Amino acid sequence: MATLAQVELKPVALAVAAPAVIEVQDVHKYYDLGETKVHALRGVDLKVKPGEFVAIMGSSGSGKSTFMNMLGCLDKPSSGRYILEGTDVSKLEKKDLAAIRNRKLGFVFQGFNLLSRTTALENVELPTLYAKVEKEERLKRAKEVLELVGLGERLDHFPSQLSGGQQQRVAIARALVNKPAILLADEPTGNLDSRTSVEIMQIFQELNEQGLTIVLVTHEPDIAQFAKRIVVFRDGKIRHDDPVRQRPHAADVLKTLPAIDED
Amino acid sequence: MDLLAILRIAVRALTRNKMRSLLTMLGIIIGVGAVIATVGLGQGAQQAVQDQIASMGTNLLYISSGSVNKGGVHLGGGATKTLVTDDMNAILKQVPTIAEAAPGAGSSAQVVSDNQNWYTRITGTTPQYFDIRNWPFAQGGSFTQDDVTRATNVVVLGSTVQQNLFGNADPVGQTVRIGTLPFQVVGVLQAKGQSGLGQDQDDGVYVPITTLQKKITGQDWLQYIMASATSQPASYAAQDQITSVLRDRHRIRAGQDDDFTVRNLADVAQLADASSQVMTLLLASIAGVSLIVGGIGIMNIMLVSVTERTREIGIRIAIGATESDVLRQFLSESVVLSLAGGLVGILCGVASSMAITKLLGWNILISPTAVVAAVVFSMAVGIFFGFYPARKAALLDPIEALRFE
C-alpha cells in the first residue's frame, strides 16, 4: 500500500502543474438487453494527468472493458461526463468522435488487430490516411514510429510473417503514428508469452518516460506492476486506486529472463 | 482519404478474391455486352431500313388507284379504273414541285427464252421509272420514250429473270417471248436483293406502258403513278396539290371519298423507323434486365464481403475512420466492380457484334451513345446495389465488430 506522503503529495503537485488529460465524472452505463438491464458502470470518477501510466485491473464483468471502450470513444456513457483534454466528448457527434479516436487516441488491442495481407508499413500508415496527412509525411511518420518500436527492418513484412511480439509492436507504432495524447491498451500482453510481454512493457515504459500518457487494461498483476498507478474495478465501480510502490524497470526484468529466439 | 487512395484500396481488396470478383463482374459483363450488341443490332437494322428507303428516294410520292364505294359495296384498293396516263400528264403539268413521274401497271405472265421459262411480274412503265427509283442497269439500258410512243416490243429484265432465262450469258439483243409475243431485251437491271419485306425486287420484267396496255392486258388504266418531288419538304405540298388535281379530274365532289391514295414515302420511312426503334428498345430492355440481375449479384457479394470483413471494419473505425470513410470504401469497391465489368462488357459487346456481322452478314452499328450509356448505367448499378451493403458496413458498432471472429 502507498504511504500517506505519496498519496497526499503527488496529486496536489500535479493538479497545479497541469490539467487532467482524462477526467471522468460520475459515469454510468446501462445496457438494455431486451428484458434485462445491465448496469455496467455505476458511478465512476477518474482523473488521469499528463505523463501518467495507469493500469486498470478487475475480473471479467467488473466493467473495466466497458470503461475502456468509453475512454476510447467507441462507446458513450449513459450519464455523467467524460472530458478529454478539456473537451466534453460525451456530447460529441459520431463524426467528431472518429476524429478524436484518430488524432488524440492510440489503440493497442489484445489480438493485435492488424489488417492481414497489408504490410507493416501500410498498417501503420492507415491512421494518417484517415487524418488526411500528405503522402510523403505519412511515409516519414510511419517509418519513424516503426523504428521507434524496433521494427525499422521489417517495413514490408506482412503480419503473418511476424511473431506475436512484432505484430504487437506494429500495432503500437500504428497507435503512435498520429501523435496521440493518450495510448489506450486493452490487454496488450494477453496473447504473448512472458518474455515478450515484458518486452512490450519495456516499450510502454520508455514511451511513458518520453511523456506519453498510457492507460492499460490487464488482469495480470505482474504486468500491472510496470505501471505507475493501479485502478481496480469491481461491479462497475472503482474499488482501489493506488500508486505502484517499487515499480520494476522492464529493461532490468528482461535481463533476468532467459532469452527466447524470436526470428 | 483522397479518391486515388480509396480506389487503390478498393482494387486491392477486389484482387484478393480474384475468382469471386470475376464471377461477380460476369453478370455486369454479360448485361452490358448484351445491351451493346442488341442496341447495335437494332440500330443496324434501322440503318438498313433507312438506306433502303433512301434508295427508293425519300422525295417519292406513290399515287395508287384506290378503293371505291359502289352502291354500298366497298371494293378493295386498285379496284378503280379511273387512274390513267392523262392523270399523270396533268400532275406533271399542274404541280410545279413534281420533277418526274412514271406510270405503273402490271400483270404476270410466263416469260420464255430459247430453252428456259420463268413466271414473273410484268410492269408497264416509262423510262423515267428507272430514274425515279434510282435503279441502275447492269447491262444495256432502258427502253426509250420513242418505244413508249410506238408501243414497241422491248423489255428490261430484272436480274433474277435474267439468271433464270440466260444464266450468265449477255441477254441484250436476244429475244424472249411474253405470252405469245416476241420481245427484244434492251437492258438488265442491277441486282437489288430483297426488299424490307422479303420480296425479291429483282424478280420482274419491265415493258413500255403502251405495249403492256395495248398488247398484253388490253386495259388502259394504271395501278399507280410514281412521282418524285423536287425536295423532301416540297413533297408534302405536292401531296396536297396532286390530291386536288386528281379530285378535280375525277370529278369527285366535296364530301366524297377519293378514288385514289397519295402516299408520301417520307411517311413510310418514318413509320419503318419508328417500328425498328421500338424493336431496338424492346431488345435493349430485355438485355437491361440482365444488368439488374448483375447488380443484384454485386449486392450479394458485397454483403458477404462486409460480413467477412467485420473485424477489419471495426479496426478502421477504432483508428478513426468515419462513417463516410467506410461507406466510400465499400461503395468504391462495388463501383470498381461494376465499372470494370462494364468496360469488359463493352469489349465483349463490340466483339460479338463484329462476329455477328462477319458470320451472319447482319448490319450492326455500335453507337457511341450506347457505349457511354452502358458505362454510366453500370456505374449507377454499382452505386445503387453497393449502397446498402456499404451502409451496413458504415453503421457497424465498432465494439461488436472488434469482437467478431
Give the class of chain B from helix and strand content and strand pairing: alpha+beta
Overall helicity of chain A: 25-40%
- State the strand order across the main sheet of chain A: 6-7-8-3-9-10
Q: What would the principal axes of the Cα set say about the shape of chain B?
A: elongated
Beta-strand content of chain B: 15-25%
Tell me the span between the first and last alpha carbons of chain B: 27 Å
Task: Output the helix-strand order of chain B.
Answer: HHEEEHEEHEHEHEEEHEHEHHHHH
User: Beta fraction of the residues of chain A?
Assistant: 15-25%
Biggest pleated sheet of chain A = 6 strands, mixed
The count of helical stretches of chain B stands at 13
Using only C-alpha atoms, the radius of gyration of chain A works out to: 18 Å
In round numbers, the mean pLDDT of chain A is 87
Output the structural class of chain A: alpha/beta
Q: Tally the beta strands of chain A.
A: 10
Q: Main β-sheet of chain B, in a few words? A: 6 strands, mixed, barrel
The best one-word shape of chain A is globular
Low-pLDDT runs of 5+ residues of chain A are 1-16
Computed CA radius of gyration of chain B, to the nearest angstrom: 33 Å
Describe it.
The complex is a heterodimer of chains A (263) and B (405). With 263 residues, chain A is an alpha/beta fold. Chain A is built from nine helices and ten strands. Chain A has helices at 4-17, 64-71, 94-103, 120-130, 135-148, 164-176, 194-209, 221-224, 250-256, and strands at 22-33, 36-48, 53-57, 79-84, 87-88, 105-108, 182-186, 213-217, 229-234, 237-243. In chain A, the strands form two sheets. A six-stranded mixed beta sheet of chain A has the order 6-7-8-3-9-10, with helices on both faces. In chain A, strand 9 (229-234) and strand 10 (237-243) form a beta hairpin. The longest helix of chain A has 16 residues, at 194-209. The radius of gyration of chain A is 18 Å and the shape is globular. Residues 1-16 of chain A have low confidence and may be disordered. The radius of gyration of chain B is 33 Å and the shape is elongated. The two termini of chain B are 27 Å apart. Chain B contains 13 helices and twelve strands. In chain B, the strands form two sheets. In chain B, strands 4-5-10-7-9-8 form a six-stranded mixed barrel, surrounded by four helices. In chain B, strands 2-3 form a two-stranded antiparallel ribbon. In chain B, strand 8 and strand 9 (181-189) form a beta hairpin. Chain B has two domains: 3-52 and 271-403, no CATH class; 81-258, no CATH class. Chain B is α+β, with helices and mostly antiparallel strands. The chains are: A alpha/beta (263), B alpha+beta (405).
